[in-house]
Amino acid sequence: MRRALAMLLIVGAIPGDADAFDHRRFDRVLRAHVEGGRVDYAGIKRSAMAELDAYLASVARARLDGLSKPARLAFFLNAYNALVIREVARRYPLTSVKKVSGFFKGLRHKVAGKMLTLDELEHKTIRPEFKDARIHFALVCAARSCPPLRAAAFQGASLDRVLDRLTRSFINSWNGVRIKGDTVRVSQLFSWFAEDFKRDAGSVGRFLARYHKTAAPRLATMTHFEYLPYDWSLNVKAPAIGQPSPG
User: Fold this and answer.
1) Could you give the CA distance from residue 16 to residue 30 in angstroms, rounded to a whole number?
2) Residue 217 is part of which domain span?
3) In a domain, 27, yes or no
4) 221/146 Cα distance (integer angstroms)
5) Average pLDDT value for residue range 42-54
6) How many Cα atoms occupy the beta-carbon half-sphere of 213 within 13 Å?
């Protein structure tokens, strides 16, 4: 009995659910400090760092052998986003992650027993293992041109539905696809990760067509796009009146 309880604590699993990792701490942080995709880093730094650190401690020691594929993907997506939030909150006030040397390629974090950079987590774990281009609308790099951060943790049971919703929302947003006359401009994400979209749909245009509400036939036949500038300024929630802005 004691050994079984110890294993639950090590893995971070929700008691009675062998196909889930306990994301409740991270979920509480997101629900309290994310609104409209923007993050209250000052509030997290002030009152939620202990909760975020405790969640990431469970991420660090997690054992994932018993998890389903959707639960594994939910775990890695949450881990990535939680790490980004923690590293920004630690350094807040901050105007952009580009101000932090090695933010994606240098800083190392423990995830399920392995020391990884954020780039390694994304490009050597998530992308090759799961081969699902929709992950690019769930991973949030703390920039305004990134897809909006969801104000809830991902869960394996609902992940497919949520990824579809996030993908559709971004593609139909100002940051995703802009059409004016004969000009179609799309997010840089569709350039940086073109191979993922081509793998899933045959072409970037066909991928966009799956989700765009009004221009699917036009997008499906397109092979070349103009790309929107990427705004790396921080996806920070506007401070309340009387509160200092990030420096």
Assistant:
1) 24
2) 2-227
3) yes
4) 26
5) 98
6) 10
